[in-house]
Specification:
It is a single chain. This protein is α/β, with parallel strands linked by helices and 247 residues long. The protein is built from seven helices and ten strands. Strands 1, 2, 3, 4, 5, 6 and 7 form a seven-stranded mixed β-sheet that branches. The protein is elongated.
């Protein structure tokens, strides 16, 4: 009989996401220097540290330092992680300084909007501070989050959520790509007995694939997911971002 894991180290780490990281708690190569707020005198630069890694297809976004200084970057990191279609996302606040600003906690709670809009991918917050956990649970959007005291419990609860059925297809940037993508979506939705949404889904997927084929000119990855009455279509190309464009 296989015993369930009893420690976070029992979960195999799949990979590091983004840059190569060392085993150090928060490597300096990922430290982002952000300017301090203007005070009318010379300001110092504070280091805010975020790193991202994966545990069994769960993306873990780790934060060190003051949450109020990093919460906007944290929200962006959550969105980027969700774009990869992971099993779930966990925000690890184990190394966040105590005395968190209530405004920062409120901003963090708004991450629950991602789960509200697409409940298929859970988002969890691991935080040892009971006051922060209470504030997150009390927030209307924070109520959509999984809130736990430890990283291990957060990953465990994410992995306990139902696994979604996902159909994927890889197509080349070719004039026939939009038609191939429409046929893929049509077959998938027919198998799922969702013929009523085929006209709309085919139109959306065809337009997105045509745009990627023309503007990016790279291979394209498609996915189709159905969950709790919501259909999610994703189209990802590998074209370079525009100069100066934020992720």
């Amino acid at each position: 009989m296989v015993q369930p894991p009893t420690d976070l180290n029992d979960f195999p780490t799949d990979r590091q996401v983004g840059s190569t990281l060392t085993p150090a708690p928060f490597p300096t190569q990922l430290a982002a220097d952000l300017p301090a707020k203007a005070t009318g005198r010379a300001t110092s630069r504070r280091q805010v540290r975020i790193r991202t890694r994966a545990i069994r297809q769960v993306v873990v976004v780790e934060v060190a330092g003051s949450l109020s200084e990093v919460v906007e970057e944290l929200d962006r990191a959550i969105q980027l992680a969700l774009a990869d279609g992971p099993r779930g996302v966990v925000c690890d606040l184990s190394n966040v300084l105590e005395g968190t600003d209530p405004d920062a906690v409120e901003v963090l709670a708004t991450a629950g909007r991602h789960v509200r809009d697409w409940p298929g991918t859970p988002v969890a917050v691991a935080c040892p501070d009971p006051r922060v956990r209470e504030a997150l649970r009390a927030h209307p959007l924070g109520d959509h989050l999984i809130v736990t005291p430890s990283l291990f419990s957060a990953v465990s609860e994410v992995l306990a959520t139902p696994t979604l059925a996902v159909e994927r297809k890889h197509v080349a940037a070719h004039p026939t790509a939009p038609r191939a993508s429409r046929e893929f979506v049509t077959r998938t939705l027919l198998d799922w007995r969702l013929s009523r949404v085929i006209p709309f889904a085919s139109l959306v997927i065809g337009e997105l694939v045509a745009s990627s084929s023309i503007n990016a000119g790279t291979d394209i990855d498609l996915s189709v997911v159905w969950n709790l009455g919501a259909l999610r279509l994703t189209v990802r190309d590998h074209g370079p971002a525009l100069p100066g464009q934020r992720p």
